Amino acid sequence: MSFIDEINHANALIVGASQGIGLGFVKKLLQDERITKVYATYRQPESASELIALESENPERLICLALDITDELQIVEIVQTIRTEVKKLHLVINCVGLLHDSNLQPEKSLRQLNSENLLRYFQINSIGAVLLAKHLLPLFRHGERSVFATISAKLGSIGDNQLGGWYGYRASKAALNMFMRTAAIEYIRSSPKTFVVTLHPGTTDTRLSRPFQGNVPAEKLFSVERTVSQLLGVIEQLQEGDSGKFFSWDGSQLPW
Ligand SMILES: NC(=O)c1ccc[n+]([C@@H]2O[C@H](COP(=O)([O-])OP(=O)(O)OC[C@H]3O[C@@H](n4cnc5c(N)ncnc54)[C@H](OP(=O)(O)O)[C@@H]3O)[C@@H](O)[C@H]2O)c1
After folding, report:
1. What is the pLDDT of residues 35-56, one digit of tens each?
2. Which of 24, 154, 160, 182 is deepest in the core (most CB within 10 A)?
3. Which ligand 1 atom minimizes the distance to the CA of 16?
4. Among 15, 77, 78, 95, which residue has the most ligand 1 atoms within 8 Å of its CB, making it the best to mutate?
5. What structural domains does the chain harbor?
């Protein structure tokens, strides 16, 4: 039996749901009748039109909230909104991540490093997640089983790094893994029924991977739908003692 089956009226929060894997989770959870409410955050309406359209089609179940994860005050505000409405969350998946944008490309060599870009990677990929762990804790302390998953990346595994490059992305995901491992230990004490895990989705066809898909064999490039099903499978199979671990899309544990 999965952990969601054990709960009546599960509430979910997907952070970074405007597009890509996060939007895929929202679509999948809306099809699942065990989930009563889905909260979904987006940073800017321009890239969230599909999500916002879904909200108008499902006004009773989907609630969209604006959140830039680099602003702690905005995290506090969305948590307050959720607390006044439902008081408890059972599944939170943080899908926020940055690899490239118009001002920033992953570094191929030390020559390309600059502190401003490195700080952006850490602010978005690492610090946002641990601030979520800080402020979401009261919504998890309800005594029912719950999961707080953050999408990390195998590129953040220090032990697995054979190729080098992509300094900021790799280091920010490694920091993310350490933040969530540390938060998991504190959660075991203060919210013992909450699993805190980091998940590697596998290369998935989204804006983030698009410029780098050239060398990826077709069978290793997952659709968003496939990734979402695989990661929900991993989440549903979590067992006692799994909190604080870093899992790949196939359920195997990854080296730190
Ligand atoms: N795709 C892959 O192959 C792959 C592989 C390994 C790991 N991952 C990880 O999977 C996660 C999801 O990525 P994706 O592939 O779905 O990429 P994506 O389509 O680019 O989605 C990234 C999401 O993060 C949001 N975001 C970026 N900066 C933000 C900020 N400051 N505040 C709030 N939200 C912000 C984006 O919102 P906007 O629309 O507003 O920009 C978007 O919703 C990321 O953590 C990524 O590192 C992906």
Report:
1. 999 999 999 999 999 999 999 9
2. 24
3. 43
4. 95
5. 10-248 (3.40.50.720)
